[in-house]
Structure formats: structure tokens, C-alpha cells
Model the fold of this input.
Amino acid sequence: MKITRHLLTAIAAFTLSAQAQDADVAVIELKPSTNPSAPLAYETTELSVKAGQKVKLTLNNTGGVLPQPHNFLLLKPGKLDAVGALANAMLADPQGMAKSYIPEAAKPDIIANTKLVQPNQSETIEFTAPADAGDYPYICTFPGHWMLMRGVMHVTK
Ligand SMILES: [Cu+2]
Done:
């Protein structure tokens, strides 16, 4: 009997924490730039989430002044240039498009990502924000984009 009561208490506690998390989801929509003088960019270049928060992010590739495929990669701090260089190298990969231009060697540095999203399409991903506060870069690795198409996700405690 004692074991059963413990188990029920544990289940109740788990259910409560799951509900608390559901109520605290950061819903983000990222779109391509609508600014003709800076067409190759995300519309939003700074995002803020809480450490460990659930994030529901949609890359909505509509309305951009320059209709092109885009993706979204959230990276570990300090990994922007290294992953960008790997993305550039993918230009020579005949399978680049099929791989959504996501470099295999970059995977340990990727916290979350969408696939390549074609114009007028969108993709929604869900992930948990990093537990550590900091500035996490995000980029589009479609060839030639990452130098301009980037932003920073601020993770705060
Ligand atoms: Cu792009």
C-alpha cells in the first residue's frame, strides 16, 4: 500500500510539472526579411527565451523580398564561424540540397534545426532551450546565406 501511494504521488507530481511546462512555451515565428535594402536576413535577429523553457519555433518562409529556400540552425555559443565554414564547404556536395545544407560535421554543435524550407512553406520544430544562460547564434546554412542570415537567441535564467 505504501509503495502504491508513493507511486501515485510521483505520477501526480509529474503531471503537474508537465502542465506547468505547457503553460510556459515560447512560441516563435521566424520569417525572411521584408526589407528590400537587406533582403538576405531573418526578419527577427534577436530572440529571447528562458533557460530550459520549451520552445515552439516556426520558420515561415513567406513574404520575403527574395524568395529562396532557408533553414534555421540554433548553435552552441562560439560555433557560428566554424559551422558557417562547414556550410560553405557543402556547396561542393552534390547531396547538399538533400541534406538540407546541414553539415554532418556540425551536428555536435547544433542544438535544434529545421530542414530546408522552400518559399511559401513552413516548418515547426519543438525543442527545449539550453539549460545554461548565454547568447546562442542561429543561422541559415543555405549556400551563401549564413554571413548575413543570422541572429542571436538570448537564453536567460
Ligand atoms: Cu537562408
In short: The pocket of copper (II) ion is lined by residues 68, 70, 140, 142, 145, 149 (CB under 6 Å). The CA atoms of residues 93 and 101 lie 9 Å apart. Residues 2-22 form the longest helix (21 residues). The two ends are 40 Å apart (CA to CA).
